[in-house]
Amino acid sequence: MNTLKRLAAMRSVAGLRQPQDLDNPACVVGADQRCEHALVDQALNERLYAYEQRVRGRFAPIVGLLKTLSALQHELDFAARAQQLAHAQLGYALPDRLLNDAWIGGLDLRALHAHCIFCSFKACIEGAATDQAPWLERMVIDAAFLRSCGYHTVDLSPCADGRLQGLLPFVLRMAPNDAVTVKAYAGALFDVEADVADWTRRELERLSGGLVGAESCNYLKIAVYHYSSSNPCHQGCAAHGSQDHLATTAATAKLDELRAAVDNSFGRGAAPETLLIGMDTDTDAIRVHLPDEQSANCPLRYVESATLFRDTLGLSAPAAREAITRAVSSAARDGGLRPGMRQLVERLLEANLSQIEYVIQHHEGRYADIGHNERFICAGEAMSELQLRNKFYFAHLDTVEEGAPDLDVGIKIFTGLNVSRGLPVPVLVHFHYASRVPGARERAISRCRRVRAAIESRYASLHAQGLLHCQMAVSDQDGSERCTWIDVATVASGH
Ligand SMILES: [Zn+2]
Questions:
Q1: What is the pLDDT of residue 180?
Q2: Number of other CB atoms surrounding residue 480 within 10 Å
Q3: Can you give the residue ranges of every domain in the chain?
Q4: How far apart are CA 370 and CA 196, in angstroms?
Q5: Rounded to an integer, what distance in angstroms lies between the CA atom of residue 301 and that of residue 248?
Q6: How far is the CA of 126 from the centre of ligand 1 (A)?
Q7: What integer pLDDT is reported at residue 391 of this predicted model?
Q8: Whose CA is closest to 64, among 103, 95, 90?
Q9: Which amino acids are annotated catalytic?
Q10: From 2.40.50.100, 3.30.1330.140, 2.40.50.140, 3.30.420.270, which CATH number describes the 375-492 domain?
Q11: Ligand 1 centre and the CA of 187: distance in Å?
């Protein structure tokens, strides 16, 4: 990217108007200032970009290939040519049955589209260890760092919106690991009862000696809401009608409820620590809200990384870090911020500067697709193997009854993205099981079937028109089985 374009991108991400005189870069950054931010991890950004390219490259050829197949479907050697093209462009086969029957009633492009989305996703799962290894080792917030801040577990609940799916490695630069769990809900409105159960299980593990080295550590709950700085009224959180103040106060209220639930059930002081983060889905910049004396999360008191990026550009690394510390102290008014929490907040803000730079460098400071562009809906439990913006909409649920509001938002999004142009909504129903527990795999499969049937019944009209394709899969949380398709033959037909 040339200097002027880059400067325009930097102003964009910092929320500034474009300068009058773009021919004179000095009016943006002082003549003696550097363009690169001293706290940006450029090597990590390059590794993340290679990952983004690789993952997007598995989905990008699908539509083009299907258009080619549509044009070729009446050729005599169609099935063989289709398989050759699929192998060359996507790296996997297409179902023979769909290809062989094309001469009778035409090619079922909807079924093929869903098949390809799921197979490309599976390729990401299979390649995850190789794909992620280069950036995993450079993540600045890992389990050891979290423990040094005093946390044995970090439980994140972002909004289910696909634009937040790159949250861990990209936006927060946090390594996915056993100490970090992500459960997304529409509007970040997490399930308090389910969270109390998760908190209880982890505390039991800690108290029974299962978390070696973390005996004196605490549990941290983080809620992540989102907003759009360039189109706040339309591209904010759909679950809150794109009203930022509602997204913020609703997430704050959920965190309050969780603390009260634990305190009231297990005694005052037992409650986990909580943290509220806002994310600008146009630029990936964050807003970290600071807990006050009561350990509450104030919706109005926060530090914004975009402002820090602009204010510390051109400073040396130590001077930029000092500026971050000052900004946090000033916003917190030194009101009861625990040293470990302060260390985490400062690290989150610093780490996000690299993501701001990433979006400047690779997406001109603001994503071209500021709205939705997900490929499928994942209902049930997500896999940590795919961590990328706008790849899927994730509705965490145990039953469709409980997860209905999240699913409804997802179906609404895909009605605009897919159904409006005749493409089906691909829904992956996925659950984990513990192979150490007898019968758990069969129960996970039964749960998949129940959830699939409930989804097909809730969206019966879409299903009847062949515009809903459910794929079921299970993964072993203890062993090596990952995303095994269940009942593939039945699902491939879409009925
Ligand atoms: Zn949202």
A1: 93
A2: 7
A3: 139-363, 375-492
A4: 34
A5: 11
A6: 29
A7: 84
A8: 90
A9: 161
A10: 3.30.1330.140
A11: 4
